[in-house]
Amino acid sequence: MDRQFYIGVFAAIFAAFAFSLNFIVPFVIGDYSTFDFALIRHVVSAVVGVYILVITKGVAQYLTPGNWLIATWLAFIGYVGYFLTVTGAAIYAGPVIAPAFLGLVPIVLALIGNRRQGSLPWRFLMMPLMLVLFGLVLVNSAAFTEVGLDSVRSLWIGVPLSIAAVVLWVWFAIANQAALAARPGMPSGVWSALILIGGGILMLVFYPIGAAMGLFQLPKLGFGWGTAAPLYLWGVSLALVATVGGVWTWNVAARSLPVALAAQLIVSETAFGVIGGLIVHARIPTVLEGAGVAILIAGVVLAIRVFHGRRAC
């Protein structure tokens, strides 16, 4: 049981790191849009998903219309929709404010998850949550200083996108765990593959619509390697690490851990996102940013110890 617990903890933290890479996307793809990046990323991820299905024995029993429909819907909520809102938030709200708002995810998800599952008495849950909340307050305080606002384009657009990303991720986490619980025999790899393929299909369907709306820059800037190399390299790299790796490890965590703990571990995404944003903008963290990240990490460590201690009782 300890082994399964720690595998789940590692998987959740890796998923948080993988998802945090979304925050750097707008700053590494040049003149191409996040829609171009999403197209490359999700199509590559879908190809990987097809490969997983091809090499998995006895996979036909899992490829029912109901499973395809639910997996594609989850891909729409938690990957395509979440990716577009979080990268849009990073563009308009900057590299610190966007991940700071997304730090609300573990608070909301832990409260909902513990209410639904009753996995931990509330008195044991409060201290880790208070640390996380205090860390978020510090990070947000730093974000709204003059230094943090330097890279903000529009709070009126960035903040609503950040809130939308929070709603989508909480919705996805709860719906995905419910779907997995209803399918105890479904291998995590196969379920991940269905979601990846669903996300790729959604992006391909959306491409002609988005191109007509001028959301994609590929038709204008060109598909050639000479101009689109950064887009392809980052798209493939993050498809493998952030999408494939993130989907698979989050499904492992969802199977191994209570929602209330997995939710608090995903707060690591905020810490990773802030650090990545600071690296992209080549500046050191302020005292408040550094303190906020440190307290967020302390909250994660305490949550792991509390849940592990309760399991050992």
Notes on the protein architecture:
This protein is mainly alpha-helical and about 325 residues long. It has one domain. It is about 80% helix and about 0% strand. The chain has 13 helices and no strands.
Please supply descriptive tags for the structure shown above.
mainly alpha, globular
Give the topology.
Blueprint: H1 2-20, H2 34-55, H3 65-102, H4 104-117, H5 122-143, H6 146-149, H7 155-181, H8 188-212, H9 218-221, H10 225-256, H11 259-265, H12 268-280, H13 287-312
Helix pairs in contact: 1-10, 1-12, 2-3, 2-8, 2-10, 3-5, 3-7, 3-8, 3-12, 4-5, 4-7, 4-11, 5-13, 8-10, 12-13
Total strand count, please?
A: 0
What is the number of independent domains? 1
Give me the secondary-structure category: mainly alpha
Number of helices: 13
| Percentage of residues in strands | under 5%
Largest sheet at a glance? none
Distance between the termini: 13 Å
Taken in chain order, the helices and strands follow as HHHHHHHHHHHHH
Task: Please give the share of residues in helix.
Answer: over 70%
Radius of gyration (Å): 19 Å
Overall average pLDDT: 80
Overall geometry comes to globular
Unreliable spans are none
